[in-house]
Amino acid sequence: MCGLLFAVYLSPCSFADSPAHPLCFDFSVPVKTPLRAYKQGRSAGESKHPGNPKHKGNPTNIDATESGRFTHSGGGIWGSALGKVELPIQRVYQLLLDHYTIKDPEKVKLRVLPEERPGYQDFHVVMLSFSKLFMKVNWEEQWAYAIAEGTSIDPKKIVVSYQKTTGTHFIPHLCGSIVLNSLGPKATQVYLYEEVNALGKRSPQDTVEGHLGTLHTLRQ
Q1: How much is the pTM?
Q2: How many domains does the chain have?
Q3: Residue 219: enclosing H or E segment and its boundaries?
């Protein structure tokens, strides 16, 4: 999710809260599984179209992507990417605690409010704002970081879950998962999945390109 692109003029009503939509996660209990597991060449649970992997083969050696459309929560698009980053899992985790690793600082301004939640290594409430010309939209996201396997000192698998909770009605639905799997002391497998219904997100490939951008940032 390297930034939502709003290509049309939005009125001051951009500040309005979105109507109620079901949330993807219940963060009152630790979330240790992604919204959708990687299924190379298979369709998502509620997607109308089959998965569309860009590459086949060993996903730990090359980037693999899938995308499609979903019908729940008013419908929208989803995309995923799976790749290898030549960094230890602890380092990748620290990079993901910085939300500008994923979001474009030239497009989105944000403020992070850390919270303590049982069962989570970290938990962030993120206040976001996007401005352009006479347009400004605000929304709030929750980010939950859970160790699914291993310990805080020696994690083997980390699951990051996020969802939009309140804010502009131009983003009716937004949530996603990031899964880190340790491949040893010097490498991590990174899986990113996001589903979104938002103005400016025109195709599932938009979401995939955002994930590939995140993988590129992690590798720098």
Answers
A1: 0.82
A2: 1
A3: helix 204-219
